[in-house]
Amino acid sequence: MSLKLNRETFIRSISDLLRKAEIELPDDVVEALRKAESREESPVAKFQLQAILKNIELAKKHGVPMCQDTGIMIFYVELGTEFQPGFDLEAAIRDAAVLATREIPLRPNAVDPLTRKNSGDNTGAGIPDIHWELVPGKQLRITVAPKGAGSENMSTLLMLNPTEVGSIKNFVLETVINAGGMPCPPLTLGIGIGGSFDKAARLAKEALLEPLDTPMNEFEKEILEAVNALGIGCMGLGGSTTALAVHVKTAHCHTASLPVAINIQCWANRHASVVFGGEE
Ligand code: SF4
């Protein structure tokens, strides 16, 4: 079955999706920040969390991005095998990025890595970063996750020795200590374990899309507790909330490898999704 989509309508929808992601945090993220504020005992950290919540409220009320770093655009596309858009989806997503940059507006963040020349419209070689997945069904689901540099720059990947499974928690703690207040805590930590060098990084980033109210397993809880015991706190100013959640994704890996990637996400855990097409 072919489900035709109008290209102009699609571009407008994706630009609107970007606007939503930049202006409005998902409910589970806001709720996690509210809970952190209510249980925080440090007056400085409590004040910082209240300022973040006020920032979120004002961004939504006035329809402006919640942070000056509007990020680079990362898209996750789940394309149903029975869904046929009838046009080049990748080109249309790029056009939507250009439109959103102009209309919202967004800070043009995409530069050539060597010359540092800015494209001016948040597109360029490999940007937007689009991850494709073919899934059964008649729908097209698109998620956008704008990612700021402050948290991305403090993320790490290590090829551990396979005997070092017990060191993973310490690697996470070292990463968070080194990051300090730079990635704008409270953080969400996406951890990818296994796969290959690049797969581990992809798993870590995908883990950031997990709703924050998803129950954590014992390993995730243990890491979260240890991270929060560090006392780095909201915006690095101390307190009990360095991270809101830890989510781990794993994949089988080579018997001689143990890739571990930690993707750090700041409080502005921005993402939004839209679905096109008929019933699943
Ligand atoms: S780390 Fe996050 S909150 Fe801090 S400046 Fe970057 S995008 Fe904004």
From TrEMBL:
InterPro entries: Class-I_Fumarase/Tartrate_DH, Fe-S_hydro-lyase_TtdA-typ_cat. Its EC number is 4.2.1.2, 4.2.1.32. It is an enzyme of class 4 (lyase). Residues 13-274 form the Fe-S hydro-lyase tartrate dehydratase alpha-type catalytic domain. Keywords: 4Fe-4S, Iron, Iron-sulfur, Lyase, Metal-binding. GO terms for molecular function: 4 iron, 4 sulfur cluster binding; fumarate hydratase activity; L(+)-tartrate dehydratase activity; metal ion binding. Belongs to the class-I fumarase family. PANTHER family: FUMARATE HYDRATASE-RELATED, L(+)-TARTRATE DEHYDRATASE SUBUNIT ALPHA-RELATED. This is Fumarate hydratase class I, aerobic. The lineage of its organism: Archaea, Methanobacteriati, Methanobacteriota, Stenosarchaea group, Methanomicrobia.
